[in-house]
Each structure stands twice: as structure tokens, then as C-alpha cells.
Amino acid sequence: MDTIISIINFVLIAGVIQGFVFNIFTIHITKKRVGWAVIYLNLTVLFISLNNLQAWLIEAGFSTNNFFFRELLVPWYMPIMPVFHAFLVYYLRIENSVKKYIRPAILIFSLEMIIRITLIAFVYYFIPERDNFLITNFTIFEEIFNALFHLLIFYECFKLVFKKKHLFPFILKYDDISWLRVILRLGSYVFILWILAIIIFNITGDRLAYYPLRLGTSVLLYWIGYQGFYRYHQVNDRISLRRSISSSKALRVNDHKLESSRDSSEYNTKHQKDFEKIDSYIIEKQSYLDPNLGLEELANQLDMSPTHLSKIINTYSDYNFSDYINSLRIQQAKKLLNDDSFCRYTIVSIGLECGFNSKSTFYSAFKKFTSQTPSEYRETTC
Q1: Which residues form a coiled coil (predicted)?
Q2: pLDDT mean over 15-30
């Protein structure tokens, strides 16, 4: 058992250090004006780190003989859900549509600190032998109240992500928010561990009940911090890239020349014109940038049968439909990767904005059409 506790304590302090490093790192590399989403994300990580640090110091035996500081347990966990909810609201860009809980959280946190300090002073000066019975009972009440407050906000976050997608259609163009669903599912398990810890501790008085909770919060700390920061910047990159592609960096019809391997005598003039019409339509409408573009959808847009469309593309591009669309996406990606003004954008963001739905499909297609990885191709530019 001692070995398991030591491992959990090690994971706990490692997560704390990682959290503080994350705070320093994100503020340092965000050279422009820091957005509210990044601020609230950093506060979420900071409060989890401070709460875990306080727990680790207590369990590791770093105590003091000073009565005031020994009893001053700061409820760092209290603002975690309110600031995470604020991050969620600003990340989804719905800050003007959804109620936030920052002010109530500040008020509750301040009141809890005032009450605790008052109780500590009262016990110190007026209670015989400084019996901390009042402080202990207040701590129990404080935790139960905060757990209920957190549960309310967690429910609001859950509803927002799973039930109210109509509020943030803009962000859904750039992020499927699957990572947020993972965070909330992990968060639900952490809540269960928290409730169990409160019940078991108040029945048995055994602080070991909190160890699974601390392990869970350490995992959550990593996921929230790095996924949140990575996704935030990826979305901003994609928004900026999409504007550039729409305005001046999109493929033009003349940029994309396909040479068929068939002899020109085999060509049907009408079908050749049909293909040129299809090719021009896809490029001018930037249909290839849609990761969900399918044969039937494009056929409906062009008012022709899927079978006829597929046959023309197969004949006059020497590609099947999927490879033909990917060839356009790769041409677009190469255009951006060749432009040194796009060096600040990640390769993944460029791939996603060129119509690929994942990093792996982008890299695989790029290698297929160029015999290079996107990173190798970009080395000559950036």
C-alpha cells in the first residue's frame, strides 16, 4: 500500500510541476494579445495545480507548528469549474449568449476564506486547547457545498457541448469538439470519485479515499491543458487560413492541369467539355476544401448522375473520384506550404483547411502524390 501511495504522490507532484510549466510556457509563447479563452484555460490548470500542490504538501508531511497556517486550507478547487466553463464559453465564441459563473465563484471563494479565517481566529483565542472541531465541520460543509456548485456548472457544460450545438455553428466548421466531449466524460468519472471520497472520508475518516480522486485530477490536468491550448491555436490558425484561401490563396483553374495518359483520339469531345466544366466548378466553388464532399453530393450540385460523373472523372483525370479530389487538396496544400508567409501555421492546420479530416489522411495523401512528407516538402520554404 505504501508503494502505491508513493506512486500516486509522485504522479500528483509531477502533474503539479507540469501544470506550472504549462502556465509559464503558454503565456510565454502567446506573443500577441492573450485571448480570454487562453486566460481561463490557464486559470483552470493553475487552480487544479494549486489544489493538488496543497494536498501533496499535507500528505508529504510539510506542516507547520503555526496554528493559523496549519488550519488555513485554501479551497483552490472551488473556482475550477467556473473558470473551465468560462474557457468553454470563450472557446466556442458564445460569450454573449451564455451565462457565466465567474462573479458568483469569486464571491463564494471570498466568503469561504473570510469564514475560515474568522473561525481560525475564534478557535485560537476562545476555544480551550484550540479544539478545531468547528473548523473541521466547516471544511466538511464547505466541500459538500462546493461539490454541489460544481455539479451544477458541470451539468451546464455538459448540456452546452452535447445538447446546444446550435449555439456555436461557427466553431463547428473548424473543430468537431470531440476532445471536449472526452474531457467532460473524464470529468464525470472524476466527479464520481469526488463524491465517493466525500462519503467514505466522512464515514471512516480515512484520507486514502481521496487518492483515486487526486490521480484522476492529475490525468484531467494534462488533458485539459495541452488539448485545450493545442485546439485553441489550431482553430485560430484554421480561421486565418480559411480567410486567406478564400481571398487570394485559393487554387485557380489554371493552377490545376491534369494530363490524361489516354490518347487524344479516344476522347469524346462532349465528355471532355463535361470534365472541364466539372474541374472548373470544383475549383471555383472550392468544393474540394469540404472534408465531407462525396460523389452523390457533387453530382446533385452539377445536376448529373453519380455514375456519369464518376465515369467522366475516371476517364479524363486518370484518377478515381477520391484521388481526384485529393489531388486538388494536395495542390492547394503545396501552394500554402510553398508560401513563406504561411510558415507560422502548423502543417496539420494547413492539411485540415485543405479538406483533409485528419493528420494521418493528409500525410498519407501527400506522400502518395509527391513522394515526400509535408514536413520534407516545407523544409525548402520555412
Answers
A1: none
A2: 84
What is the CATH classification number for the domain harbouring 342?
1.10.10.60
CATH of the domain at 134: 1.20.1070
Q: Which of 139, 35, 142, 133 is nearest to 92 (CA)?
A: 35
pLDDT in tens, 333-349: 999 998 888 888 999 99
Q: Determine the pLDDT at residue 65.
A: 79
The pTM of this model reads: 0.80
Last residue of a domain, one of 219, 243, 267: 243
The mean pLDDT of the chain is 88
* 63-115 per-position pLDDT tens digit: 777 889 889 999 999 999 999 999 999 999 998 878 889 999 999 999 999 99
Which range marks the domain in which residue 337 is found?
250-378
Q: Cα angle at 25 between 21 and 29, to 5 degrees?
A: 180
